[in-house]
């Protein structure tokens, strides 16, 4: 609901989120299909449903066996060939070959670049479409609440606004290719421990499985302002499907939770697509149907499908609800024109194209420079020609690419494990790329990948010609669906490896190849650790991307999407080992928590260095009056998809334009990410500051650019738990333009009154 008494009313319907000059997501060059409106699609779906028997309709509420991870039954008499549902968020997964392993969510988020958000999704969509897959099971947008969560690498980090931006552009990039996006895992699925525990089928109720999974217990404000935020962004973008999760929410399983599925998603957010279960997350039949679940996946549990026919005949489930379920299932199919010339299903078909190019670009753009003492980076091949390389994470695994499904097999990491894993056609490790660079630039390279061979490592420092070498130490940390990390330390005594090398090498550069947060305290202050590069999970072009950064062919500009703490306890949240995960921190998560309790982290959310420097000036705050401001006008014009959700777009109307000038005052071409943090009046009971805007700006030496950011209705609102609506607080709002969440990095400051 909207409080019209406190909202600034603007009549035009708008595109979602901050206007960014460099985003060309509206270009027809990226669109494969001519989509329909939701009203048109729903009408066509209803016409189809009218032709089905009760048995046929019920059968379509449950998955069936087939070629894909999930399959919807065909209806041959109506020329409907069924639907294919397939993982993963970062490429065509589930063991499918001839697919690209794109950099995962955590890496694309670290680029802070909406243009790349969109282009990555376009490329992913092209591969799903090329293989004839109808529903892609992504994006994953669960918030990085717990640093040890095994699936953080699939998502977009610890901030709901940044996650929402990523989710929005993923949905539109994918659906512009005619592939239905699936927002997951709905909702509050922030740990793997106790996420699902099936005991047995209930002996009294045959349509129920005894079920104990952890319950995420949280208040209404926290739900709306943190965990629901990116899902709302997805719905606003026009997402066709939402996947409910394994866990419980405030005591009720997520896939039969009337509050989250019916009231929040379908009513408040006006979501018109379908809700599918995560695989095996359905625990009841009738309760799930009435609670808002539309299709049970993979369907082997016998809880829905044909088992619903008796419940409909007895009146326990209204047939109108079954009709609604199938209408919601088929509406996205018609919405994106899958009924018109969509490719036939062939998971072995090659649809890779030249996606290695965008893969490499994203890999580079998401690499973060954390430490660079005396500008040790980038390397100059005319003066830096001797390199010692240490660590198994520098090279390929003896068993393949270094990661596999659910297990870490050693070697460089390109992605994490679980259902989000993509079987890549290839992957290039850093050592291979470094040796290629050596061939071209006549570098001298020696490497030791057995990081447990301490004697050999110590002896290497005295090698002839290497006494003044640069030492590259590669460490990694892996995680996967199915289990949470035991700690936040590097794998295989990585901290010890860094300490040993730093003790013997005065110019040690550490490359951190990690799924998410890591504790760096064992070595970060060592005087010989002069450089730290957070490579993250750069995808299959890892090696070339990293070498381009190390040698200055690409100026790093990635930024952290979480805080790196000095102590694990500093985060204030952790994995629950009981059946209850209590979100007592409320909206004070990650940098918001550090701000509230005045905790100094090692590296702040949003932090990342560059090889050049920038200046900021001329901050202005203007009301976004319709038709009078360039940025607001362009912002509105970019909303051209027919499939966006018209109902909730009123929340995303421009209210203010924030403009300022950024100049590259350094010596090389590079990029910076100005971040807009907003401080609310006391009435809102918000954290000291929250992220509400950003743009990655690329500038030549001496070049200046005026940046325009938009604040929307929702951006300046808080969730009023009493009135149950978004409301704008009366009073003074503070605007900070910063290069991280660190107050010391604030470049410009101003305010406005409402």
UniProtKB/TrEMBL annotation:
Any Gene Ontology biological process: glucan catabolic process
Gene3D superfamilies: Glycoside hydrolase family 3 C-terminal domain (3.40.50.1700), Glycoside hydrolase, family 3, N-terminal domain (3.20.20.300), Immunoglobulins (2.60.40.10)
Top-level enzyme category: hydrolase
Catalytic activity: Hydrolysis of terminal, non-reducing beta-D-glucosyl residues with release of beta-D-glucose
Cell location: Secreted
GO MF annotation: an example: beta-glucosidase activity
A family per Pfam: Glyco_hydro_3_C
Residue ranges occupied by any Fibronectin type III-like domain in the UniProt entry: 672-741
Organism domain of life: Eukaryota
SMART domains linked: Fn3_like
GO cellular component, one term: extracellular region
EC identifiers of the protein: 3.2.1.21
InterPro entries per UniProt: Cellulose_deg_GH3 (IPR050288), Fn3-like (IPR026891), GH (IPR017853), Glyco_hydro_3_C (IPR002772), Glyco_hydro_3_C_sf (IPR036881), Glyco_hydro_3_N (IPR001764), Glyco_hydro_3_N_sf (IPR036962), Ig-like_fold (IPR013783)
Keywords assigned by UniProt, alphabetized: Carbohydrate metabolism, Glycosidase, Hydrolase, Polysaccharide degradation, Secreted, Signal
Listed pathway(s): Glycan metabolism; cellulose degradation
Family: Belongs to the glycosyl hydrolase 3 family.
PANTHER family linked: BETA-GLUCOSIDASE, BETA-GLUCOSIDASE G-RELATED
Cited function: Beta-glucosidases are one of a number of cellulolytic enzymes involved in the degradation of cellulosic biomass. Catalyzes the last step releasing glucose from the inhibitory cellobiose.
Protein known as: Probable beta-glucosidase G
Biological source species: Rotaria sordida
């Amino acid at each position: 609901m909207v409080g019209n008494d406190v909202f600034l009313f603007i009549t035009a319907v708008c595109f979602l989120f901050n206007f960014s000059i460099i985003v060309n997501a509206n270009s027809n060059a990226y669109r494969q299909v001519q989509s329909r409106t939701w009203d048109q699609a729903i009408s066509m779906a209803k016409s189809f449903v009218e032709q089905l028997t009760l048995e046929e309709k019920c059968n379509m509420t449950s998955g069936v066996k087939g070629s894909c991870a999930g399959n919807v039954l065909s209806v041959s008499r109506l020329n409907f060939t069924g639907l294919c549902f397939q993982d993963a968020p970062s490429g065509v997964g589930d063991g499918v070959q001839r697919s690209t392993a794109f950099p995962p969510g955590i890496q694309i988020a670290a680029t802070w670049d909406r243009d790349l958000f969109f282009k990555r999704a376009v490329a992913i969509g092209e591969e799903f479409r090329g293989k004839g897959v109808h529903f892609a099971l992504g994006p994953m947008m669960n918030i990085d609440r717990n640093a040890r969560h095994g699936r953080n690498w699939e998502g977009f980090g610890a901030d709901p606004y940044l996650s929402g931006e990523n989710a929005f552009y993923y949905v539109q990039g994918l659906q512009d290719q005619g592939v239905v996006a699936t927002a997951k895992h709905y909702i509050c699925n922030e740990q793997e421990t106790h996420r699902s525990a099936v005991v047995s089928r209930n002996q009294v109720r045959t349509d129920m499985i005894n079920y104990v999974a952890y319950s995420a217990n949280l208040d209404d404000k926290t739900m709306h302002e943190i965990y629901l935020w990116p899902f709302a962004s997805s719905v606003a973008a026009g997402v066709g499907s939402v996947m409910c999760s394994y866990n419980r929410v405030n005591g009720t399983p997520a896939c039969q939770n009337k509050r989250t599925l019916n009231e929040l998603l379908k009513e408040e957010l006006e979501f018109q697509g379908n809700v599918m279960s995560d695989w095996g997350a359905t625990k009841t039949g009738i309760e799930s149907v009435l609670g808002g679940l539309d299709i049970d996946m993979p369907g082997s549990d016998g809880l829905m499908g044909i088992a619903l026919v008796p419940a409909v005949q007895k009146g326990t489930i209204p047939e109108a609800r079954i009709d609604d379920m199938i209408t919601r299932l088929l509406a996205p199919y018609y919405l994106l024109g899958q009924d018109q010339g969509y490719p036939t299903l062939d998971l072995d078909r090659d649809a890779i194209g030249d996606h290695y190019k965008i893969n490499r670009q994203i890999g580079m753009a998401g690499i973060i420079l954390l430490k660079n003492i005396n500008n040790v980076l980038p390397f100059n091949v005319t003066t830096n020609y001797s390199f010692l390389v240490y660590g198994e994470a520098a090279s390929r695994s003896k068993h393949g690419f270094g990661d596999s499904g659910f297990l870490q097999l050693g070697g460089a990491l390109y992605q994490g494990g679980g259902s989000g894993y993509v079987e890549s056609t290839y992957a290039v490790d850093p050592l291979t790329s470094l040796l290629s660079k050596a061939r071209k630039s006549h570098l001298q390279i020696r490497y030791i990948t057995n990081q447990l061979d301490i004697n050999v490592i110590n002896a290497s420092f005295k090698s002839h010609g290497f006494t003044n070498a640069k030492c590259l130490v590669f460490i990694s940390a892996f995680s996967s669906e199915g289990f949470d990390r035991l700690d936040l330390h590097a794998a295989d005594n990585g901290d010890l490896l860094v300490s040993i090398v730093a003790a013997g090498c005065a110019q040690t550069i550490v490359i951190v190849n990690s799924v998410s947060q890591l504790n760096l305290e064992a070595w970060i202050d060592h005087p010989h650790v002069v450089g730290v590069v957070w490579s993250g999970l750069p995808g299959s072009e890892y090696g070339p991307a990293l070498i381009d950064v190390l040698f200055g062919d690409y100026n790093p500009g990635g930024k952290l999407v979480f805080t790196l703490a000095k102590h694990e306890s500093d985060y204030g949240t952790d994995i629950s080992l009981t059946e209850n995960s209590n979100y007592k921190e409320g909206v004070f998560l990650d940098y918001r928590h550090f701000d509230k309790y005045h905790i100094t982290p090692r590296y702040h959310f949003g932090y990342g260095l560059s090889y050049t420097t920038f200046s900021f000036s001329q901050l202005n705050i203007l009301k976004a009056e319709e038709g009078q401001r360039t940025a607001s006008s362009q912002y509105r014009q970019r909303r051209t998809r027919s499939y966006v959700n018209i109902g909730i777009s009123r929340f995303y109307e421009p209210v203010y334009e924030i403009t300022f000038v950024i100049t590259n005052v350094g010596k090389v071409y590079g990029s910076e990410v100005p971040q807009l943090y907003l401080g609310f009046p006391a009435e809102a009971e918000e954290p000291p500051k929250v992220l509400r805007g950003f743009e990655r700006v690329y500038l030549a030496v001496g070049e200046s650019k005026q940046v325009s950011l938009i604040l929307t209705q929702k951006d300046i609102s808080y969730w009023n738990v009493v009135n149950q609506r978004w409301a704008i607080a009366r009073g003074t709002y503070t605007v900070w333009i910063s290069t991280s969440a660190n107050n010391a990095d604030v470049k410009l400051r101003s305010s406005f009154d409402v």
